[in-house]
What does this fold into?
Amino acid sequence: MSAPAAIAHDTDDVLVGRPSDTELSDQLLSTTWRPMTRAWKIGFAICGLLTLNLLVMVTLTVLRGIGLWGNNIPVAWGFGIINFVWWIGIGHAGTFISAILLLLEQRWRTSINRFTEGMTLFAVMQAGLFPLLHLGRPWFAYWLFPYPSVMDTWPQVRSALPWDAAAVTTYFSVSVMFWYLGLVPDLAALRDRAPSRTRRIIYGIFALGWRGSVRQWRHYHVAYLLLAGLATPLVLSVHSIVSLDFASTILPGWHSTIFPPFFVAGAILSGFAMVLILILPARRVFGLYNVITPRHLDAAAKMLLITSWIVAYSYIAELFTAWYSGDRYEVYQQIVNRPFGWYAWAYWLMLFCNCVATQVFWSRRMRRSPVVLFAVSVLVSIGMWFERFEIIVVSLSRDFLPSSWYIFIPTWVDLGILAGTLGFFGLLFLAFLRVVPFVPVTELKQMRAEMVHEEVRR
Amino acid sequence: MSAMSHDHPHEHPGPGPGDDDDGGEPGGLDRLSRRALFKLAGAGAAAAGLAACSSRPAREILPYAGQPPEVTPGIPLHYATALVEDGFATGLLVASREGRPVKVEGNPDHPASLGATRAIDQAAVLSLFDPQRARAVTERGVPAAWPAIERMLADATARGGAGLHLVLEPTSSPLVIELVGRLRAALPAAGVTFWSPFTPRSSIAGNRLALGRPLQTQLDFRAADVIVALDADLVGDHPMASAYARQIADRRRVVDGGSAMNRLYAIEAGYTPTGVMADHRMRVRGSQIARIAAELLAELQRGGVPAPAAAGRFAQLTAPPDRARWIAAIARDLARVPGRSVVAAGERQPPAVHATVAAINALLGNAGRTVGYTAPVVFEAGGPSHDLANLVRAIDRHEGDGGGVTTLLILGGNPVYTAPADLAVADAISRVDRSLYLGLYDNETARACRFMVPGLHELEQWGAARAYDGTITPLQPLIEPLFGGRGVADVLHQLLGDPPASPRDRLVQAWPRAVPGADLEAALVRGAVANTALPGVTAALAWDTLAPALAAAAVMPAEPAQADGGATLELDIRPHPFVHDGRYTNNPWLLELPEPTTKLTWDNAAQLSPATAARLGVGDGDVIALTIPGTGGAASRTLAIPAILVPGHADGAITLQTGFGRDGGEDIARGIGGNAFRLWTTTAGFHPAARAVALGEHRALAIAQVEASTGDRPIVLSGTLHALGGEAFRDELAGHRGAQPSLYPAFEARGPQWAMSIDLTTCNGCSACVMACAAENNTPVVGKRQVQNRRQMHWLRIDRYIGRYPGGTTGAGIDAASDATAVVQPMLCQHCERAPCEYVCPVEATSHSPDGLNEMTYNRCIGTRFCSNNCPYKVRRFNWFDYKDHRSLRVLGKNPDVTVRDRGVMEKCTYCVQRIRRTEIDARVADRPIGPEEVQTACQQACPTRAITFGSLTDPQAPVVEHRHRPHSYAVLHDQGTVPRTQYLARIRNPNPALDGTADGAAGDRHGGHG
Amino acid sequence: MTRAASARPVLMAEFSSGPALLDGIRALAGSGMSRLDAFTPYEVAGLRQLLGVRRSWLSWIVLAAALAGGGGAYLLQWWINVVDYPLNIGGRPYHSAPAFLPITFEMAVLCASAAALLSAIVLGGLPRLWDPVFEIDGFDRATIDRFWVAVGAGDAALPAIDDAQGRIDITTALGAAGALRVLWLDAADRPDRPGWRDTREDAR
It folds into this structure.
């Protein structure tokens, strides 16, 4: 992945060169009709197989019961909830980039925001599977939502799970809306540019007849900003609420007030890692070195560094509060069980991946080396998965009464489902690359125009 | 419609519909007959269920033809009957629902039960409805006809019993005894042997040594201030265990520091419930007990207890230094209360020990007060007819003179499996031409015999037996024989050529002769005949036989407690507390019930102390090869079996429990664990010179509890009686109960407020409550692999924690780990007033009732398991798979009052809400208040020591309220603010000050919460 | 302005860049035209102000939706737990206000977002899959790299159909401002007149 180096180093711009509107449009729209590369096909095949495997595992689980998983009493939550939290967290970077950075007028977000929004959607889809699957009776999942039933039964809203349901559904819907609104002008462009008539018709329908009249831009602009404004507190709220699944209990290792910010930071860390894992290959495959420049990589790497420090701080804070509280159960959980218990290896692995590995990004060269970025991102993704493992499995395996302490060992179904969601995620993502321009053409053209404007003024 | 419909109805001896129109009979029997009629309905139900093998019992229940007046559908009826084990009866009340026995309770009027049950009794219903019971007469495995058997018996009779040999289980039934008598008279040439591995032999022989006559020891703990159990599991493994446990516990009910408490010394090798209950426990190898008994006697003499000159030379005996202090202290304690103590020896100990113990009790003046002697309850107990060698000898004579055995009738038991290893019973039987086995299962013996005849379960039988104290106990069937089985009496009658009659008629006819002057119907109603306990016998010590025995014990070398003789270990073999000698091994309830002190399920294992395990280099599940050197030219025998570490076990010894390693036709029993009988000989329950080698293999055991330390958490609080009198401990305890600051407003409570109190001082971990809970609440069995996955479904479990105590266990206190002491704690839903499980449920599937119950709404549960995560007591259970066995015959034993839970649903203890509601309805119907102890939970009702108390906090008369006010009442994890409705009474010990270093117990207590 | 939006465009001019478009519009405004509309591939800075289009008032709809969603959610939770089916859940009060907040917030955001998207579409006159301007040859580049201005019918300053000179002046003015093409859409039936071209001819 060192091919871009030549281009990479001759500018520190978010857009290499000043391609005309026409050039940009052709380059970026064409990803949807350009013939598929071999790499894409291979990836698609692999992901397809994994998705099939997911289908099988899910069917088994629903038919036989979650006894097929490794869960037990005391460890009643296992891979299901770990994967849920992990995937949700990954989603966060997308919204963070497209919404928060938009409000902060960070130009470098422009060329990657659609990409990361897509990632958000697909990650949240994976996450959404697990709250359903991990139920003993998944077919009654709708009982979490308030609907008038003859029995007058309602959800119990003091529990964090209905909060979850509300947060995740809201998060997904809002992400979809935000994503779609941003897409409309590009869909219109595709309607007017796509090679085949069928494509034009399909894109035309989704473009809703967008004409780019000043009147449409007038409302569009405000709506887009408002959605960004709404998505910002939303994205912060979602993982805070997810963290309440744990923080609102009395379990040692869960019962903690620092969870919400801690979880959000972790989410963004894992999210940015996933962004890089996805964007580096895509950038190479579709030769987008001019729109996804070293400047982008550099910014992402800095985000990794910052969030990894926040996470590290949280780990330290956890230990401190445990010790300071003097609560014998908390002390045992944080200071004995996690670092030295049955799962000590997982704890140290987590610390290495989330706190140590990221430190390479103090170096500018590392921040701009796709290889290093990719490697560290993979490590961080693993580390963040194990962070959730620590919180959920390790805490549960040793709680209050030693008599019920027991170890959790995942089954092949657990592993199969995790692998399956990775495949399904990849499948959706590869499809997304082919269906819509994954770099927002309109926004990029506008940004270019503004940049030219500024350069003229200078 | 009767069970016989798929066998030979006309031949069936049991009461058919025809037998019931006995209007001509004395009116006294009308109700009896109606009840019999009523039972038929259930019988039809069961039979149909069997024939149809359908999954919908509802369809199989037949409507009442003519409803007997005492029967109302939906209302359980209780009938008094009994279970008989090794010849001793335990009186029970069995609840019958629409003709199906569904639940066993103790019979308060029966001396061996006193209203309580053992775990085994609770599981009887499941054994009755065991789909794997033998179903038809077979010859060499192929179905055969009863007439063939009849011909065989007739032939044997015709030959005056020549070549006929019978093997029966030891019996105390007056009816069977009478039949055996008639048989011997009619067929003098016939041989009769009684066999059961664990029927009392040694004690009776010992008493013959000490008292000159074969006598059975009867203990009475009601007046005993000091109890010394020498390798005697008085509350666990004894025909009177339930009653003895109650008597001992009644003297240990601590109200405050001023309460009087008896003092229990347990000196044993393995860890038993008696050891758990003990104030002082010394772990020694079984072979040392003889020496210790002698030392004790000698010490008593030195202490001035008058003894005749006959024991003179004996008085010089002294204990080895590491236990001298103990022996001295115990002796002083005994001498302190002459006539108010009990010294008891276990059945595994050789006669000499029992003789010594008899002497001690006599010298202490206990004889006639706390220790009595009666004629043996079991027919010819201790006599030659109880030696299985007779059978082998009889068969071997075959080759020699013309005698020998041509017809062998094994009526019950399972001698092929339980025979001492030094007797080759199996191939002896194979040499008999016509052998017949009558039993419940196609087991090892059945497979060794030519004919197999299905037997009767106690709940299908008419009959009678004596309790351990001799009390006559009638048996009556709760249901028609499911598989048309036959009783032992039926076969004997057949042999004697008696005309066919229904078993009930035979009971009616034989009763007046068996129990003169006792009304049968009254006996059946009450379940026992009052004042039929055998009269006590006063016998003076027979020094001429006793002295040599004592002398022998005196010269035996004293091993230091810690010496584990190099490569050779002592092998102790004892019956498993739940499957006994293997007769219950096909009962999954009993297999999944964790063994009281090891917590092992679905297996037996070689129990050894951590020190010994370290020396062998093995841990839990590591397989060791146990070898017994062959004696007298016999080949040595080896058994490969996984090890399990038991802190508190004697060093240099291994305890093996029997009942496993079965290889009969029972699918569940076959192939689990190892067969201890292969290493067992009748001479003694322990083998001094076994060899053990680690094989390097590992066999995963299903141990229900892996972490044994409380880590100083406030879970099991405990201290000494002395400490309870002092401020420090009382204040510490007070910190674990009472109101907690809360932000939430109090909820107004309506109606009674149910609460439970559990006394950890009297709980010995026998686990009867766990089984009772399973039987009452239809909790499923999940199997070994799922136990290894930690998915047991028991709503009530018994936690076993191990730590250091004032008093506690010692083996000269060298090895901390091995000397550790166990405490047990029944753990069930605590019904917290601020239940953490409730507020995390997203669908209101668990909520709080106005009368203080933490309720589960199964239909509403979607199985997030969030509640379990947030339950600090981890008492919630989840249906990981579909555990309903609707296609099995076992469904007939389910409690119709309790929902059978579906897959994916959470469940837990309900405080037996079905019992609460039933009582409330009854009270409302009768327009009266609910009595203070009227509602009894299943666990409470089964508990032999009455450790569990249940009632309403709003009722000042309720004992549970009084318990709440005791200084040692506390809430587990009080610091979590869950406000549990279940509270515990701290474990209080009464150590001998002379042995207990720490006078104020709390300080030395490593279990209490120092919160 | 809004009426112009619905009014059929009479004059349309095509530009190659945003700045050029702005010049053209200034030219038209100079000649007093007010019923102007513009079609651009992306937002051109200053365009809205130049055309005198007020800032969108869509924010108020969104605010209303947020309040409705949040308030509704809280009320529902209160009604469920206090009025319709009060249950003792772990000894917590029926009205556990703090526990009701997360859902309240989420519902507010959800409703607000939905409102924002829908009103952006509806107020923008969408969905409208066909529009007369789509018939104009080359208009398809309006979403790619061309910038169009339109003058709606009935604009007072718009030269009448037979005022050939007036139209020629405007055409040249636009040309001077950098217009690539100038189209008079109402004169299709007057082929003999100078100063305009029939786009529909080209379309054929």
In short: The two ends of chain C are 32 Å apart (CA to CA). The beta strands of chain C are 9-15, 36-39, 147-152, 181-184. The longest helix of chain C spans residues 58-84.
